[in-house]
């Protein structure tokens, strides 16, 4: 790469010495020389250190000084250029695969600087394609691996505020989905997911998943689900420790006015309770009559999908061999009704063998209940 | 906060059986701005289908281009998902052809529409996506010659975990109506996979569709379509240079065949330009690497003269005129009764059970 730049300047040098003797062509040569200093010739050959240095000064102009007008426009333009060069180093281009040496250099420069924080804090002010470029750079950076080491994960563990900024991003519709993409990349790593659990950040998701904009709410739900299902052991530890706070909040999701929130949270609850890592949480959950009531009401919800998801949680209460007294009481009080109800429940799902087996089992269990 | 109550639902302009979706022509009550609202009944959708709808919205949020339709906002009320879109008042190219241009659109208009669609494809491809749904039904037209590519639901990204993939293997299984437009390499599902060039094949089929009035391969069973594509059968634009005259057809004149005869007469009376034929043919090459890329296509001679198509957009589409809200009545009493009745049926469901706690 360097040799190319060398060739180019050699050529220009030769051209200049040749043209010096021909003054008429002087103007166009000067123009060519000036062009060579501009981005079109230099862009691809800028070193990672140069990019980071130039980014620093651009970010300073943009977000820390009171600038306006043309200076500002110019700075934004430079920011976009630097983001584009960073992206081509990190992710490669159509023609070139990324070069590991340059990627390493750029990553080191980024770890050393405050650039990631500053850009994230000001993400909403960057234009549409710039936000996407940065998201891609960030995610590629997050995935870096050297042998068994994950330098970016180590970096993010030290700079916990970056995760805070990403979680906070859901509050701003302009950057919510970009932040969501970056956050999901981070929580693929257990140590980073733990940081989210250990902060207040996790509880913010109970509000995010109910946001009125469907794109953002469902993105937040995807992150919420990843947090609860990806790292089984850490998650179960967290849930046990915070049961009294998490489950009342979760119950509000089950009673949400938003259909999608209700449907998705019911489904996720079924998955969580049936995961063997969550055995302790499951036994605790199914010992409480309030929880059984919610499921029985959802069984007769007007939406068929809600009924169906509720069935998969309800079955755990019935199948439990050690039912608590209050649970047994409710089931006994409704024994005949439940048998009738289940006999007519979703009979058209004849091709779903597992469901039909489970239903038959539940009916048998309920019939055999004795006080 | 947006709500469906802010809009007057005027009439249904399209439906999709997958995901129980209807597209409504609506007017915002306060601003009188017309909007197309896509309403999907989520309770009729499987979880997989709900995820699919969510994915589409996420993909759209990564796109920003004048020729790509991206929703304004999406929200959920009761069991329904409402996706608010700009209303494209001429509808889709396929609607335009159905209502007036049964045997194809004028060549100048096609040149303009194609160049707009190719701009959309160039943008989408540069981002590393494959659209996989290029067809006349997904090209929307609006006054002032605005053209937008819609239906981003089949889109797939070529960016995987680490970097750009050279090709992908996923099969777009949710839309069987797309099959005639899909490239041989997608249909083949072999180890080589496919890339952005498969959209160029679909564009080729769409080009024939716009010129001929119907898409090639739609008149045959899927198995035969697949065989024809793999054997390298190349559809073409139908005009007097490509279709042999059939005097018998005109002689055996009876009522049943009148459309075929009309089609034949029109075909024999027109000649598309050499450049136009060449463009369609190059897009339909079986070997993906010998098709031009979207960027190369923009320099194709056929697409260098699109100004007249843009300037005369409305005239070329005559006698069709854009749909205006004033000319439409509110939905008929029958529609309303059906809606009410179905609402009542839902609330009947299972209300006989009351649990005792």
From TrEMBL, chain A:
InterPro entries: ARM-like (IPR011989), ARM-type_fold (IPR016024), Mo25 (IPR013878). Belongs to the Mo25 family. It comes from the Eukaryota. Component of a complex that binds and activates STK11/LKB1. In the complex, required to stabilize the interaction between CAB39/MO25 (CAB39/MO25alpha or CAB39L/MO25beta) and STK11/LKB1. The lineage of its organism: Eukaryota, Metazoa, Chordata, Tunicata, Ascidiacea. Component of a trimeric complex composed of STK11/LKB1, STRAD (STRADA or STRADB) and CAB39/MO25 (CAB39/MO25alpha or CAB39L/MO25beta): the complex tethers STK11/LKB1 in the cytoplasm and stimulates its catalytic activity. This is Uncharacterized protein. It holds the Pfam family Mo25. PANTHER family: CALCIUM-BINDING PROTEIN 39-RELATED, PROTEIN MO25.
TrEMBL record, chain B:
It comes from the Eukaryota. Pseudokinase which, in complex with CAB39/MO25 (CAB39/MO25alpha or CAB39L/MO25beta), binds to and activates STK11/LKB1. Adopts a closed conformation typical of active protein kinases and binds STK11/LKB1 as a pseudosubstrate, promoting conformational change of STK11/LKB1 in an active conformation. Belongs to the protein kinase superfamily. STE Ser/Thr protein kinase family. STE20 subfamily. This is Protein kinase domain-containing protein. PANTHER family: SERINE/THREONINE-PROTEIN KINASE FRAY2 (PTHR48014), SERINE_THREONINE-PROTEIN KINASE FRAY2 (PTHR48014:SF21). Residues 7-303 form the Protein kinase domain. PROSITE patterns: PROTEIN_KINASE_DOM.
């Amino acid at each position: 790469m360097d040799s190319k730049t060398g060739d180019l300047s050699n050529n220009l040098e030769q051209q200049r010495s040749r043209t010096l003797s021909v003054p008429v062509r002087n103007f166009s040569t000067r123009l060519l020389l000036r062009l060579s200093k501009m981005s079109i010739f230099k862009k691809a050959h800028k070193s990672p250190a140069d990019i980071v240095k130039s980014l620093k000064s651009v970010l300073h102009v943009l977000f820390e000084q009171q600038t306006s007008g043309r200076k500002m426009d110019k700075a934004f333009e430079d920011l976009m250029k630097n983001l584009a060069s960073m992206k081509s180093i990190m992710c490669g281009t159509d023609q070139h695969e990324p070069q590991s040496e340059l990627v390493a250099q750029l990553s080191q420069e980024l770890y050393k600087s405050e650039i990631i924080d500053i850009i994230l804090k000001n993400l909403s002010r960057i234009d549409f394609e710039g936000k996407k470029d940065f998201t891609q750079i960030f995610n590629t950076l997050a995935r870096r691996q050297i042998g068994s080491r994950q330098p970016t994960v180590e970096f993010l563990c030290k700079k916990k505020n970056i995760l805070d900024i990403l979680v906070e991003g859901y509050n701003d519709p302009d950057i919510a989905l970009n932040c969501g993409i970056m956050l999901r990349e981070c929580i693929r790593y257990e140590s980073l997911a733990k940081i989210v659990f250990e902060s207040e950040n996790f509880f913010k998701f109970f509000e995010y998943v109910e946001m009125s904009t469907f794109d953002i709410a469902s993105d937040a739900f995807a992150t919420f689900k990843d947090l609860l299902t990806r790292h089984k052991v850490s998650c179960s530890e967290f849930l046990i420790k915070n049961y009294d706070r998490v489950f009342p909040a979760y119950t509000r999701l089950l009673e949400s006015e938003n259909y999608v929130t209700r449907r998705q949270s019911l489904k996720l609850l079924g998955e969580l309770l049936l995961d063997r890592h969550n055995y302790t949480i499951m036994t605790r959950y199914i010992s409480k009559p309030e929880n059984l009531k919610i499921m029985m009401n959802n069984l007769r919800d007007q939406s068929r999908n809600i009924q169906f998801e509720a069935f998969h949680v309800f079955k755990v209460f019935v199948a439990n061999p050690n039912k608590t007294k209050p649970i047994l009481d409710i089931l006994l009080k409704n024994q005949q009704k439940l048998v009738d109800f289940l006999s007519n429940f979703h009979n058209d799902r004849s091709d779903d063998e597992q469901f039909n087996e489970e239903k038959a089992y539940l009916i048998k269990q309920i019939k055999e209940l004795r006080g | 906060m947006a709500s469906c109550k802010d809009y007057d639902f005027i009439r249904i302009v399209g439906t999709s059986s997958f995901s129980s979706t209807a597209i409504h022509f609506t007017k915002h009550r306060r601003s009188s701005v017309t909007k197309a609202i896509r309403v999907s009944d989520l309770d009729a959708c499987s979880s997989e289908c709900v995820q699919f709808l969510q994915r589409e919205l996420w993909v759209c949020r990564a796109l920003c281009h004048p020729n790509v339709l991206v929703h304004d906002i999406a929200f959920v009320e009761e069991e329904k998902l409402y996706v608010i879109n700009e209303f494209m008042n001429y509808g889709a190219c396929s609607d335009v052809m159905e209502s007036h241009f049964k045997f194809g659109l004028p060549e100048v208009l096609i040149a303009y529409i194609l160049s707009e669609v190719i701009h959309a494809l160039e943008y989408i491809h540069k981002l590393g996506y494959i659209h996989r749904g290029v067809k006349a039904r997904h090209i929307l037209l609006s006054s002032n010659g605005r053209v937008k590519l819609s239906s981003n639901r089949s889109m797939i990204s070529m960016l995987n975990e680490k970097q750009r993939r050279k090709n992908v293997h996923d099969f777009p299984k949710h839309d069987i109506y797309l099959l005639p437009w899909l490239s041989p390499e997608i249909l083949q599902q072999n180890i080589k996979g496919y890339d952005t060039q498969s959209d160029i094949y679909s564009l080729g089929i769409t080009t024939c569709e716009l010129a001929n009035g119907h898409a090639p391969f739609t008149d045959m069973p899927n198995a035969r379509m697949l065989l024809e594509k793999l054997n390298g059968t190349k559809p073409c634009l139908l005009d007097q240079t490509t279709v042999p005259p059939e005097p018998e057809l005109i002689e055996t004149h009876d009522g049943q065949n009148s459309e075929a005869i009309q089609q034949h007469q029109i075909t024999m009376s027109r000649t598309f330009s050499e450049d136009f034929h060449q463009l369609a043919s190059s897009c339909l090459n079986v070997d993906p690497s010998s098709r031009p890329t979207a960027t190369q296509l923009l320099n194709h001679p056929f697409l260098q003269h699109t100004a007249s198509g843009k300037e005369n957009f409305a005239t070329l589409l005559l006698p069709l005129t854009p749909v205006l809200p004033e000319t439409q009545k509110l939905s008929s009493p029958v529609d309303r009764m059906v809606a009410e009745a179905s609402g009542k049926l839902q609330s009947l469901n299972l209300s006989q059970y009351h649990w005792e706690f």
